[in-house]
């Protein structure tokens, strides 16, 4: 290169100019900054536009910030209701305390878009590459697990799997796919229907090795089979096991992909519908960890890419929206299952993923808004029923599943509240009853449609238990309706789980009646005016053959009792003249 080359262009080097003038968010994300306040990038993505104090005269403003971005963890509901006073105060506190550049860099991550692999900039895999860039290497090291272990043993080569085409025909797949998109997709919109159909057609027309997308196909078939009006596909369990084997295959699981996140969410839903809570909780945590591993908990502009040709890899607006729906569905399922089960949920640092938009016929955003009301404070603090219950009630009951999910959260809040022995107001009791009654009707409706979501039985059972636990006139007046609904659903199911739930609730109901009867006897014994009469009456009652099964039945008719047992209050002198 000749010496005159440097004399032709008097401008300073481009890299130095951007480093001197760019605002802090653009520097951290290696984006071009237009040196305005706020700059176009910060205005577009809602960042806090800040210029360092030592940036020189080229910075138009010093020490100012732009805080128009709403945190994805805020309690603003996607259906447009105004945030609560506590949420507004918390947001003001966050805005008044801007994040320091050091903490922002510490939370920043790096994404390998080719392998869809996300990690922190401080990770052992990213550090060699960062050093190479700092040393201005011609070929900086790739993001790789250099020296992660000693490499003494060979990695598992995986195992052979059956093919999904051998387990189900194309015609049956089309049938269960339609059922899935009618029953499951409106609640958990994690798949793009057009892209899914196109990839499914390609799967059935080509031959090749197994992939995570095949696990998605198996998950769709399994859930579609579950929600079919018939008994489902005869090889449903084999299809579920096939998806599990693919997801746990070391060759496939070593290469993280967004398809794995979708497949694990589908598996979590199936496990929540069919097996024990521990298994569903584990699967939901795996889905969350895979969501972090693929970086979808961040917006694409919030991470550093490992390749300069990122323009060909960055998804379009539709792909970004689908990634948001995928992450928030994983987050929502994990939060709800963990809170109901009484276990810790997966907590990710510095979530920048925006919430998905709501649309007609899609209820994913509403379910996310329900999950956002799950308390995040420590277990010792307890839930704030006074503020949370009204927010739950404000969520529209646009679908029966939404109504039951709202009730599930109410029951969980009350159980936690009761465990801490905190008082509860009548207004809060009436809110729980109102939400519970709506959920009871919703469960009955879904049962009639043969859409047996997990909370069709669970919500009604827990609601009846909560009514007995509240133990007021308002709550006890609703026990009959809840019990009747539970028995009707159990009669339609006719299996061990439903029968067990009904029998357990009957035992609790009868024990509650027995406890109240003993309390009445103790109070009567304390009245000296009733001493003699009560002793005689109790002596006579010992000789009476009482049909206790009829008495303790919630549907008993008073005429079923023996004539000697029907003693009026006026005959027993309970209300003596003054």
Explain what the structure shows.
It comes from Hyaloscypha bicolor E. This is Zn(2)-C6 fungal-type domain-containing protein. The chain is built from 27 helices and three strands. Helix 9 (about 170-185) packs across helix 11 (about 210-225). It folds into four domains: about 1-70, no CATH class; about 165-340, no CATH class; about 375-515; about 530-570, no CATH class. The chain has helices at about 5-10, 15-20, 25-30, 40-45, 85-95, 100-105, 125-135, 165, 170-185, 195-205, 210-225, 235-245, 250-255, 260-275, 275-295, 315-340, 365-370, 385-395, 400-420, 425-450, 455-470, 475, 480-495, 495-525, 530-540, 550, 570, and strands at about 110, 115-120, 305. The relative contact order is 0.06. Strand 1 (about 110) and strand 2 form a beta hairpin. A three-stranded mixed beta sheet has the order 2-1-3. It starts with a helix and ends in a 6-residue tail after the last helix. The protein has about 575 residues and is mostly helical. Helices cover about 55% and strands about 0% of the residues.
Layout of secondary structure:
Blueprint: H1 4-8, H2 14-21, H3 24-29, H4 40-45, H5 85-96, H6 101-107, E1 109-112, E2 117-120, H7 127-134, H8 164-167, H9 170-183, H10 193-205, H11 212-226, H12 236-247, H13 250-253, H14 258-274, H15 277-294, E3 303-305, H16 317-341, H17 364-371, H18 385-394, H19 400-419, H20 426-448, H21 455-470, H22 473-476, H23 479-493, H24 496-526, H25 531-542, H26 548-552, H27 569-572
Parallel strand pairs: 1-3
Antiparallel strand pairs: 1-2
Helix pairs in contact: 9-11, 11-12, 11-14, 12-14, 14-15, 14-16, 15-16, 16-17, 17-19, 18-19, 18-20, 19-20, 19-21, 20-21, 20-23, 21-23, 21-24, 23-24
């Amino acid at each position: 290169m000749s010496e005159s080359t440097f004399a032709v262009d008097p401008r300073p080097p481009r890299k130095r100019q951007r480093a001197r003038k760019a605002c802090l968010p653009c520097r951290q994300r290696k984006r071009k900054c237009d040196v305005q306040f706020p700059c176009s990038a910060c205005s577009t993505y809602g960042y806090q536009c800040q210029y360092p104090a030592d940036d020189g005269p080229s910075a138009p403003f010093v020490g100012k910030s732009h805080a128009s971005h709403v945190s994805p963890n805020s309690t603003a509901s996607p259906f447009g209701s105004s945030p609560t006073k506590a949420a507004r105060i918390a947001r003001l506190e966050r805005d008044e305390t801007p994040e320091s550049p050091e903490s922002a860099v510490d939370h920043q991550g790096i994404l390998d878009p080719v392998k869809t692999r996300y990690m922190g900039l401080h990770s052992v895999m990213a550090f060699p590459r960062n050093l190479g860039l700092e040393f201005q290497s011609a070929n900086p090291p790739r993001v790789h697990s250099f020296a992660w272990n000693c490499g003494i043993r060979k990695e598992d080569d995986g195992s052979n799997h059956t093919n999904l085409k051998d387990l189900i025909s194309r015609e049956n797949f089309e049938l269960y796919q339609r059922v899935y998109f009618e029953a499951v997709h409106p609640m958990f919109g994690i798949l793009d229907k057009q892209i899914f159909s196109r990839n499914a057609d390609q799967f059935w027309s080509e031959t090749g090795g197994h992939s995570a997308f095949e696990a998605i196909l198996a998950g769709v078939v399994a859930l579609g089979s579950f929600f079919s009006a018939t008994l489902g596909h005869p090889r449903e369990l084999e299809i579920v096991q096939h998806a599990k084997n693919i997801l746990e295959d070391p060759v496939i699981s070593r290469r993280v992909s967004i398809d794995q996140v979708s497949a694990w969410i589908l598996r979590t839903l199936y496990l929540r519908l069919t097996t024990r809570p521990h298994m569903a909780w584990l699967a939901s945590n795996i889905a969350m960890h895979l969501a972090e591993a693929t970086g979808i908990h961040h917006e694409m502009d919030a991470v550093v890419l490992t390749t300069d040709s990122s323009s060909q890899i960055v998804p379009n607006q539709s792909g970004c929206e689908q990634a948001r729906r995928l992450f928030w569905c994983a987050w929502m399922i994990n939060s709800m299952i963990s809170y109901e089960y009484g276990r810790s949920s997966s907590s990710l640092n510095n979530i920048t993923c925006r919430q998905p938009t709501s649309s007609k016929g899609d209820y994913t955003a509403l379910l996310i808004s329900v999950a956002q009301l799950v308390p995040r404070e420590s277990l010792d603090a307890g839930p704030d029923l006074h503020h949370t219950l009204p927010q739950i009630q404000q969520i529209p009951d646009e679908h029966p599943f939404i109504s039951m999910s709202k009730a599930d959260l109410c029951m969980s809040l009350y159980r936690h509240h009761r465990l801490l022995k905190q008082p509860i107001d009548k207004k809060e009791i009436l809110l729980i009853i109102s939400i519970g009654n709506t959920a009871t009707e919703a469960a009955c409706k879904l049962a009639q449609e043969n859409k047996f979501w997990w909370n069709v039985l669970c919500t009604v059972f827990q609601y009846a238990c909560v009514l007995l636990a509240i133990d007021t006139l308002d709550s006890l007046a609703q026990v009959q309706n809840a019990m009747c609904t539970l028995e009707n659903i159990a009669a339609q199911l006719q299996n061990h789980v439903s029968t067990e739930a009904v029998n357990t609730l009957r035992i609790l109901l009868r024990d509650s009646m027995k406890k109240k009867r003993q309390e009445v006897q103790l109070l009567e014994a304390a009245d000296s005016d009733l001493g003699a009469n009560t002793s005689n009456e109790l002596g006579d009652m010992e000789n009476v053959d009482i049909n206790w099964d009829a008495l303790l039945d919630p549907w008993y008719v008073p005429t079923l009792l023996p004539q000697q047992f029907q003693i009026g209050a006026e005959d027993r002198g309970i209300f003596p003249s003054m």
